[in-house]
Specification:
This protein has about 300 residues and is of the alpha/beta class. It is about 40% helix and about 15% strand. The chain has an eight-stranded mixed β-sheet with strand order 1-2-4-3-5-6-7-8, with helices on both faces. The longest helix is centred in the middle third of the chain and has 15 residues, at about 95-105. The radius of gyration is 18 Å and the shape is globular. The model has no long low-confidence stretch (mean pLDDT about 95).
Length: about 300
């Protein structure tokens, strides 16, 4: 797959669909490689008239790793945030948004429909806030404004988030199974074979747990976007699972309330993942939102 020079780093990316179709940029979440946007999902969006671009964020997959940047560990960053102390972060979400803009520059994309999931939704929000001329529409999936006072993850989900990383392929796969049992969608079948296969592919492609910690510190250090979102004029769609234990649905509702004119899609039985059974619903919603606000 190709790599692009973007914002002083290299990003691994892949495109689906016709080159002349309206671009749709997919931004993935914490510690998750671009293959988290599965090929059937990307192909579904391409079939709906888009040039779909997925990429590895910095510090994950085959993109640049920020190994030599000093920063607080995750627990220290959380403590500092709670006590009002500054957080030493390796970077912030706005830097990751600038990475995405750099990728758009490298691909010759003046504007795109931007879709982000979880942390990727936060990055997509930062894109719309800081680079509004480059974002035609925003779709924020299972994400948050980052404002204080919103419900935190459920204790079992927080435990999964802060668990020590596994080092062997077998242990990584077993952790993945345990993780998705906790944070996945209770209203849809638990597909153990699919989760196992995805974890194996991800491990073989790139296992880099240190990057997850740096990304999590970046999220912690980036603070609230509420005030900026209230000034946003970008057409926005908020999608969230009503049964999300990691980023509770109230976080999605707060995003919907913050952005003027935003539309919402809240899905019963959906947790903090995108089950195959929802692909058609999700791709229809994303493509429909983009079609209502064409670039040309």
């Amino acid at each position: 797959m190709p790599r692009a020079q973007a914002n002083g780093i290299e990003l691994e990316y892949e495109c689906f669909g016709e080159a002349g179709a309206e671009p749709l940029l997919l931004v993935m979440g914490l510690g998750t490689q671009m293959i988290g946007w599965t090929e059937p999902f990307c192909e579904g969006l391409a079939a709906r008239g888009h040039r779909v671009v997925r990429f590895d964020n910095r510090d994950v997959g085959l993109s640049t790793k920020l190994e030599d940047v000093e920063h607080d560990n995750v627990l220290q960053a959380m403590r500092n945030t709670q006590t009002g102390k500054p957080v030493r972060a390796p970077y912030r979400l706005r830097d990751m948004a600038a990475d995405a803009v750099g990728l758009m520059d490298a691909l010759g994309l003046d504007r795109a429909h931007v879709v982000g999931a979880s942390m990727g939704g936060m990055i997509a929000q930062e894109l719309a806030i800081g680079f509004s001329d480059r974002v035609r529409t925003l779709t924020s999936i299972m994400s948050s404004t980052g404002e204080p006072g919103l419900p935190p993850p459920r204790p079992e989900a927080m435990q999964v988030l802060l668990r020590a990383p596994a080092t062997t392929r077998e242990a990584v796969v077993e952790n993945a199974l345990k993780t998705w049992k906790v944070i996945g969608s209770p209203g849809f079948p638990f597909d153990e074979a699919r989760i196992r296969a995805r974890a194996e592919v991800s491990f073989d492609r790139c296992h880099h747990p240190a990057g997850i910690g740096r990304q999590l510190v970046a999220v912690t250090a980036s603070g609230s976007r509420r005030e900026a979102l209230e000034k946003l004029s970008t057409p926005t769609l908020v999608i969230h699972g009503e049964d999300d234990p990691l980023v509770p649905v109230e976080c999605g509702r707060a995003t919907l309330e913050a952005v003027p004119g935003a539309q919402g899609l809240f899905i019963p039985g959906m947790g903090h993942d995108m089950p195959v059974e929802l692909y058609e619903t999700l791709t229809d919603a994303i493509a429909g939102h983009a079609a209502a606000h064409p670039i040309r």
